[in-house]
């Protein structure tokens, strides 16, 4: 398996993998492929990596800037993370996320947030922080990972692309 930056020729495959990955997920509204496309069009895909095997895209991860209502430095949101259903639970997502963190750190990022399963994302060092809030997130499911210094406090807003339908 190879992890690399997305190329223009990967866009259709990323869309297909993302749609398949979220197709039967109860909490998904099936907008994840449109969100990734909108982030790309807006120039807001700061890090966009694919996992490939024998030339086929089997996974994708996106990181985009977030805004925090108080001075916070350079923070990013993780997601969507997509792995082809037949390759899930085999470490593909973990490798994509870890490589994404390395890319963010190389860019000087201060940290990353994610709205997701605490048991899964806790493995990467994400923690719940009551001083960092995302509207509508159930307690404990909005998480942060500080790469440098103290984490910010305030309300987090993702890129407008996350409102895409």
What is the number of E strands? Answer: 10
The number of helices is 4
**What is the CATH-assigned architecture?**
3-Layer(aba) Sandwich
In terms of structural class, how would the helical and strand content be classed?
alpha+beta
Task: Look up the CATH topology.
Answer: Aminopeptidase
Uncertain residue segments: none
Structure description:
This protein is α+β, with helices and mostly antiparallel strands. It has a single domain (2-163), classed as Aminopeptidase, CATH 3.40.630.30. Helix content is 25%, strand content 30%. It has four helices and ten strands. The chain has helices at 11-22, 32-41, 92-106, 118-121, and strands at residues 2-5, 47-53, 56-65, 67-68, 75-83, 111-115, 127-128, 132-133, 142-146, 154-157. The strands form two sheets. A seven-stranded mixed sheet has the order 1-2-3-5-6-9-7, sandwiched between helices. It is globular.
In brief:
The protein is α+β, with helices and mostly antiparallel strands.
Task: Based on the model shown, name its key terms.
165 residues, alpha+beta, Aminopeptidase, 7-stranded mixed β-sheet, 3-stranded mixed β-sheet, 4 helices, 10 strands
């Amino acid at each position: 398996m190879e992890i690399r930056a997305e190329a223009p020729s990967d866009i259709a495959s990323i869309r297909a993998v993302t749609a398949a990955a979220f197709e039967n997920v109860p909490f998904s509204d099936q907008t994840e492929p449109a969100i990734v496309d909108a982030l790309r069009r807006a120039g807001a895909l700061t890090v966009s990596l694919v996992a490939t095997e024998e030339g086929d895209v089997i996974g994708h991860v996106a990181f985009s800037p977030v805004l925090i209502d108080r001075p916070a430095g350079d923070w990013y949101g993780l997601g969507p993370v997509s792995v082809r259903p037949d390759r899930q639970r085999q470490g593909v997502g973990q490798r994509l996320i870890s490589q994404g963190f390395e890319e963010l750190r190389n860019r000087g990022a201060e940290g990353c947030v994610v709205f997701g399963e605490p048991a899964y994302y806790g493995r990467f060092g994400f923690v719940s922080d009551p001083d960092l809030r995302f509207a509508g997130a159930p307690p404990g499911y909005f998480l942060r990972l500080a790469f440098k210094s103290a984490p910010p406090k305030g309300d987090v807003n993702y890129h407008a692309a996350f409102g895409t339908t």
